[in-house]
Amino acid sequence: MEYSPPPFFKTGPTPLARLLIFSLLSLALLFADARFKYLETLRKSVSVIIYPLQRVANAPASIAHRAGEFFVTHSALRADNARLARQNIENAVLLQQLKSLQAENTHLRELLDARKRVEVKSTLAEVLYAARDPFTRKIIIDKGVQHDILPGQPVIDHIGVIGQVTRVYPWLSEVTLITDKGQVVPVQSLRNGLRAVLAGTGNDGVLELKFIPLNTDFQNGDRLVTSGIDGVYPPGLPVAEVTNVERNAAYLFARITCKPLAGVNNHGQILVVGQERNLPERPAEETRPERVKKGKRGG
Amino acid sequence: MQIRATTPQEILLPVRPAFIVVTLVTALFLNFLPWSGFWVWIRPDFVALVMLYWCIEQPRKIGFTAAWVLGLMMDVADGSLFGQHALAYSILAYAGIVLHRRVQMFTLTPQVLHVILLLLFNDLVVLIIRMLAGSDFPGYQYFLGSFVAGALWPPLSVLLKLPQRPESDPDHV
């Protein structure tokens, strides 16, 4: 008989005892992670171990993608080229206007003695894969601590905001998409400048404006851009468009649903935007010249 | 002596531990493939499936430690709560080890029913943990992957037994 030696041989603790030990260990980990957000170092070390396997697993898809790019037809390339040339001319006009406007803006700001807008450093990254956790909306990108990515940085594509870096590993980072339940973006309506808080619902393509009184002026088709008052997202990035406004007098708040403008579920290149720390000076009684830490404001 | 309902008595070679490691790493690799969209829902959890196979076939060679470590790796790769897969896989390993004599008695089809139930329970553990942590129910398609995994069980058990088959047929000398 291959397995099952007689019971008087030593076989260690019984399966039930082992199950109890490992369950308690897992529960301790769960509790420490969910409540206190410890264990980030442990997470990072495990991520280093599995990193090669993750890269290898993603290789077939990227190779297939590149092979597909190689076999592009001549006509498709020409059409693409023509479209880009047209776009370039259109953009050139806008760019010239932008330059003069920027010059005018700096001049006016100098006149007003206002703070200059800081040029932010951004990093181009590629989406490796969408996290396979059906409970959250997250993507994994191919830049990490080694490329100076910090937790909290906003992530945009060529249209607008898609999410925020929530966890960084040595060579990868995890981006929580704006559609994730509990992900919140402070926004402002482009039409009338109303400020609001945009929250994800956990469903793809559905966002919700939270805590908006019934009589507030939001309409279908209103464009929402980041307001920038949070100090995390730079102001003026397009986020979403209002798709439905439901005012029911039985409830305290209007139910306003929006859809994200950026390709939140698309794969491809994205930009991790450097953080614009443009916070006001600390009050004089604080003598330490350190930068303001999160969660310790107004101390 | 093992008694199987249909397969003739055959003496298998002992399994090499390196082979177990290779299959588990392959399962991790399959889980790490960039599944997206509709495929996420029907993706079987290869790690759970292969680990359950070894827990049933070789309960002395593999056990809780392997299950737990694999669970941690899945947690990090998926960015999920740290320990949710570790807990689910530990319970799955326990079920596999406790039930291994019973499951081995059956032919492949009733084995599939056992496997689907065990994997569904594995999903349920993860679901309960996530709902306690404040997530919404993702819909019933969440359980689809376990049925796909059940369908993969017969080919998997044939495939993983291949290296254990003796090379020459003893009936024809």
Describe this structure in words.
The complex is a heterodimer of chains A (299) and B (173). Chain A has helices at 15-36, 40-70, 74-112, and strands spanning 122-130, 138-141, 154-156, 161-168, 173-177, 184-189, 195-200, 207-213, 223-226, 238-246, 253-260, 269-273. By secondary structure, chain A is an alpha+beta fold. The mean pLDDT of chain A is 83. Chain B has 173 residues and is mainly alpha-helical. Chain B has one domain (17-164): Orthogonal Bundle (Arp2/3 complex 21 kDa subunit ARPC3), CATH 1.10.1760. In chain B, 65% of the residues lie in helices and 0% in strands. Chain B is built from 7 helices and no strands. The model of chain B is unreliable at 1-6 (pLDDT under 50).
Features:
heterodimer, A: 299 residues, alpha+beta, Thrombin, subunit H, 3 domains, 6-stranded antiparallel beta barrel, 12 strands, 31% helix, B: 173 residues, Arp2/3 complex 21 kDa subunit ARPC3, disordered N terminus
Low-confidence stretches of chain A: none
The number of distinct structural domains of chain A comes to 3
Strand neighbour order, sheet with most strands of chain A: 1-2-5-4-3-12
How confident is the prediction overall: mean pLDDT of chain A?
83
The percentage helix of chain B is 55-70%
Largest interface: A-B, 52 and 52 residues
CATH architectural type of chain B: Orthogonal Bundle
* Most strands sheet of chain A: 6 strands, antiparallel, barrel
The overall number of domains of chain B is: 1
How does the overall form of chain B come out from the CA principal axes?
elongated
Question: If helices are DSSP runs of H or I spanning 4 or more residues, what is the number of helices of chain A?
Answer: 3
DSSP, total strands of chain A: 12
Query: Could you name the CATH class of chain B?
Result: Mainly Alpha
Amount of helix of chain A: 25-40%
- Number-wise, the strands of chain B total 0
What structural class do helix, strand and pairing data of chain A support? Answer: alpha+beta
The topology string of helices and strands of chain A comes to HHHEEEEEEEEEEEE
Radius of gyration of chain B: 17 Å
CATH class of the largest domain in chain A: Mainly Beta
Oligomer description: heterodimer
